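Lab notebook, bench 4. Continuing the backlog of folding jobs that were queued last week. Each job is logged with the same field layout so the records can be merged later without manual cleanup. Today's entry covers Membrane-bound metal-dependent hydrolase, a 200-residue chain. Filled in by technician R.K.

JOB TYPE: sequence-to-structure
TARGET: Membrane-bound metal-dependent hydrolase
LENGTH: 200
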Amino acid sequence: MMLPTHAIVGLAIAAPLVSVAPEFAPAALAGAIVGSVLPDLDMYAGHRRTLHYPTGYALLAVPALAAAALVPASGSFAVAALLVGAGAHCRMDRYGGGLELRPWEATSDRAVYDHVRGRWREPKRVVRYDGAPEDLALAVLLGLPLLVVLEAPFRWLVLAAIAVGGVYALLRRRLAALAPVAFGYVPPAFRHYVPDRYRS
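JOB STATUS: finished
OUTPUT FIELD FOLLOWS
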């Protein structure tokens, strides 16, 4: 799924704290947004493997949530929300398309690397590919209530995520055609950083 959808899901996970524990909500929302985008920082260094830990984040989230419940503080809520957001991101990627430039062709059997089992997990393709209409629909469906519940700056993040997601969804298939051309101009010294999928 696309990064804007991950970001909105992270905010949606932490949003109930606005009502339940408003004093900790800003820290939790900030932690959730960081955690929900953190795994994709491996985009050019072993994407969906280097920073994607579907089991690891979930296991770490359990004691972090317990710590936030036992010792409520902005820091403990931020850490717990970060880990839950990162875990949700990794799980969501499993329900999307595979790790390929054109995931709508369904040629890859790699969704997310499972470090515990030591193998790639197959994509379920509930959301066919990042930027698919159903991906954007999920972002909008979760984002609209957040616009009512959240205040600035988080409300602006939701609006930005929906806008960026909409543009990305419109251009997604064209970007797949453009990527190999654009990455062909990368200087030779940096070409080893270009993922294989962008060279085809």
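OBSERVATION: The chain is about 55% helix and 5% strand.
SIGNED: R.K.
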